[in-house]
Specification:
The chain has 155 residues and is mainly beta. The protein is 9% helix and 31% strand. It has one helix and ten strands; from the N terminus they run βαβββββββββ. A hairpin with a 2-residue loop joins strand 2 and strand 3. The longest helix is centred in the first third of the chain and has 14 residues.
Length: 155
C-alpha cells in the first residue's frame, strides 16, 4: 500500500481515512510518498514546544521572586546545537515566549540582552525559578526535546 500526495493542493484528505492509511503503513512497512519524496520508514512527528519567561531580576540574585516582572520585547532565538538560528521572536508584554511546532531533537536558546541590561547569575536554584543563559553569551545549554514534549522553564 502506498499513499501519494503530489502537491499541497492534494492535501484535502479525510482525517479519519488518512489516520487509518497511516496506521496500515506503519503495520505493513509500506512506503509513503509526499510531494514526490519516498519515505520508506514512516515516522509520526509530534509538535513540541520550548519556552518560558524573561524577567527583571531586580535584586540580581538570579532567582525569580514575587514582584519581579516580565520584560517585553526581548529578542529570543531558537537554535540547533551547532548555533544555527531556526526561529526568532520577541517576548510578549508579560515577558513570555514560546516556540511551538518543533520536531523531536536537541535545541538551545539564545537570549539577546536589551541595551543597558545584563544577564543574571545562572542556575542559582535547582528549580524553574532561576536564570539559565550564560551571562557572557546569552546561550543556554543544548537540551533534548522529545515528541510532544513541552519544555518550560528555560529562562
Amino acid at each position: 500500500m502506498a499513499v501519494a500526495i503530489s502537491s499541497t493542493n492534494d492535501l484535502r484528505v479525510n482525517k479519519k481515512a488518512f489516520r487509518a492509511s497511516w496506521q496500515n503503513l506503519r503495520h505493513v512497512g509500506a512506503a509513503l510518498v509526499v510531494a514526490g519524496l519516498l519515505v520508506t520508514s514512516p515516522v509520526m512527528v509530534w509538535a513540541g514546544k520550548i519556552g518560558d519567561y524573561v524577567w527583571n531580576d531586580a535584586d540580581g540574585d538570579g532567582i525569580q521572586e514575587d514582584g519581579e516582572t516580565g520584560l517585553s520585547g526581548v529578542t529570543v532565538n531558537l537554535q540547533d546545537c551547532s548555533g544555527t538560528n531556526l526561529s526568532t521572536m520577541q517576548t510578549d508584554e508579560a515577558g513570555k515566549y514560546l516556540f511551538s511546532g518543533l520536531v523531536a531533537g536537541r535545541y538551545r536558546i539564545h537570549f539577546v540582552a536589551p541595551a543597558g541590561w545584563s544577564f543574571s547569575l545562572p542556575k542559582q536554584t535547582t528549580g524553574r525559578e532561576d536564570s539559565n543563559p550564560d551571562p557572557g553569551t546569552g546561550l543556554t545549554g543544548c537540551r533534548p526535546l522529545a515528541d510532544r514534549q513541552s519544555r518550560r522553564g528555560i529562562d
